[in-house]
Amino acid sequence: MATNIFRSFLRPRIKASFFKRYESSEKRVAIHDPFSNKPEKNKESYLQVIKFFEGRDQRRRGHVEFIYAALGRMKEFGVNNDLEAYKALVDVLPKGKLVPTNIFQAEFLHYPKHQQCAVDLLEQMENNGVMPDIEMEQMLLNTFGRRGIPLRKYWRMMYWMPKFKNLSPWYLPDKMPDDTLELAKLAIQRITSVDPDTNINVWQTEEIEVALDKTWIVSGQSRIQKLLLAEQPIEEPLVIKGPYYVYLRDQSVTYFTLLGKIRPEPKDDIDWDDVSKIEKPSGIPGFIGKTTLPSIKCTVHEQDDGTILAICATGTSSRDSLLSWIRLLEKHDNPLLANIPVIFTLLAPPSDISLQETQPALQEEDNIERAG
User: Fold this and answer.
1) Do the beta carbons of residue 157 and residue 183 sit within 8 Å?
2) What is the pLDDT of residue 297?
3) What average pLDDT does the structure give for the chain?
4) Torsion of CA 192, 251, 43, 91, to 10 degrees
5) Residue numbers of the chain with a pLDDT score lower than 50
6) Which helix H or strand E contains 87, and what residues bound it?
7) Rounded CA gap, 80 and 83, in Å?
8) Residues 49 and 35: beta-carbon distance below 8 Å
9) For 199-245, what is each residue's pLDDT tens digit?
10) For residue 133, what are the CA distances in angstroms to 175, 253, 287, 324?
11) Do the beta carbons of residue 53 and residue 102 sit within 8 Å?
12) Strand partners, 312
């Protein structure tokens, strides 16, 4: 009996007022987002918010959460490809305090939350193609020391990113144009670069009187493709396939291809081991006699699924714009298109066509319901 009284005396008694105070304080918690109050979403306002956070509190409490919030708002402010913005976020971390002072702190991940935050920042830089510089290395060294995980991540980035930065043969500017027409030109130039003889033309659908969509068309076709189109049989229809997607950095462009029939492979029944009939060599080109090209020559445009006769990108990617493209190809040195059928294989029809097709069916259903 005395033991129970002693235990009840030592047991801490939590008053109900504590829970009430906790509940009331929890309801009054308000999350303040400093980035949402900026009317202009640009680099200057983004850096201004970071400077305001650094000068608000000397201890910079909540700096890890602030960095994660700032990383999520980078694309909104248009600084996701700006190295200066990433440096400003790294500068928010305290200097000296996060550096391990002994081997145990270095091996057991000293301040893991802060190191993971810096690694996530570097990974976002890597995903956006932003290569750090020597100043970034010095900032990470002053913050986490030589044994910090973020500095190792920086060294790996500086080893691999310079190797892949200029490895692509298709050059793209650091800042992509906002105009969709310029993006389409870059995309068609990249796709048709397999044939240096390709001509890229920009047409307007207003050139066709019966065109419904008033938009632009970027078309690519070489002289070899025109010859291949002229040899297509009239009874075999051509096929427009697409839409396909080509990515230019973080933007995508939709394009279509005009496919034709594959030319038959030549049948060669010559027995090269038979030496009874050895023909006289036709000669060496340019020296003795003359040599003719083979009747069938495989080009880069002849693929397994068909012969690519032309390629294009339109402003609306609709059937009407593709029909205008075919008529413009016919107008520019492809007269065979006037006599050969063309099949469209779009994944989904335009909205106006789908509404016209489904409207009678909906009216019939309404009449049946009313009659019932």
Assistant:
1) no
2) 55
3) 81
4) -100
5) 2-3, 5-7, 9-30, 287-294, 348-372
6) helix 83-90
7) 8
8) yes
9) 999 999 999 988 888 999 999 999 999 999 998 999 999 999 989 99
10) 19, 32, 59, 50
11) no
12) 219, 256
